[in-house]
Amino acid sequence: MEVRYSVHPEHAKGMDTDALRSHFLIGDLFAGPGAKLVYSFYDRLIVGGACPKTPVALEADPSVIGADFLLQRREMGVINIGGPGSVTVDGTKYTMARRDGLYVGLGSRDVVLDSDDAADPACFYMLSAPAHREFPVTHISFADAEPVTLGEDVNSNKRTIRKYIHPDGVKSCQLVMGMTTLEPGSIWNTMPPHSHRRRMEAYIYFDIAPGQVVFHFMGQADETRHLVVREKQVVLSPSWSIHAGAGTGDYTFIWGMAGENQAFTDMDHIDMADLK
């Protein structure tokens, strides 16, 4: 399990491109034959990824989390961004079509990821946060994630937001997850920007056309920075940082949050005039 330590905003101001990428970008989440897990000290979120060609069991790293199994004191959200597959939790198999989600609650011991076809493997994106209460394992089909359309063509930000794990739907202790898809011709998300000091966030960008990129904007409002992001790369967004993006074409991203609350509207909005 890889470990990423927290960065003070004053430290981030002096980072060059390589330093920013090494601290805030996860570029190889799906590179291995098994599952890769990255432990972040931002609200102790774990980011995981796997594109299994054979069954992959998730395992704990006791030296990092001090637990006998991964979800002994944690909960997890899973969204499939690849081909059809399945997630088996303590012997119960959940079929996972593309863009289906699964909430896996505290105390779930055995979690196994698999693909229906090794030639078109599932790609499971996972977020795990500390938990204090058990909620049931719940499958979330893409069709059941209620869509909300925002933005306008004139502002190049027309997009559809779908909430998977949230207080008004599939409940959790602190983890919140959802997906945003930009319409063709739209490139901007979350602009004007905001931060939320009470929660950190993680983004995975995908469905980026070959040869295209996304520019993820981060940093404090008066000290903005950017990361160039490619297909299936993840950005860790500290609670002190803005998080907005613009692509050279349309794209999709999964957002996930952990921290003090689960209120989607709890945002510290930033005036465009204050951006530097």
Explain how this protein is built.
- With 276 residues, the protein is mainly beta.
- The chain has a single domain, classed as Jelly Rolls, CATH 2.60.120.
- Helix content is 6%, strand content 42%.
- The chain contains 3 helices and 24 strands.
- Strands 1-3-4-11-6-9-12 form a 7-stranded mixed sheet, with no helix packed on it. Strands 2-21-18-23-15-14-13 form a 7-stranded antiparallel sheet.
- A hairpin with a 5-residue loop joins strand 3 and strand 4.
- The longest helix is centred in the first third of the chain and has 8 residues.
- The model has no long low-confidence stretch (mean pLDDT 95).
Blueprint of the fold:
Elements: E1 2-4, H1 9-13, H2 17-24, E2 25-26, E3 36-40, E4 46-50, E5 56-57, H3 62-65, E6 74-80, E7 85-89, E8 92-96, E9 101-104, E10 111-115, E11 124-130, E12 138-140, E13 147-150, E14 159-165, E15 176-182, E16 188-189, E17 194-195, E18 199-206, E19 214-220, E20 223-229, E21 233-237, E22 244-247, E23 252-259, E24 268-269
Parallel strand pairs: 1-3
Antiparallel strand pairs: 2-21, 3-4, 4-11, 5-10, 6-9, 6-11, 7-8, 7-10, 9-12, 13-14, 14-15, 15-23, 16-22, 17-24, 18-21, 18-23, 19-20, 19-22
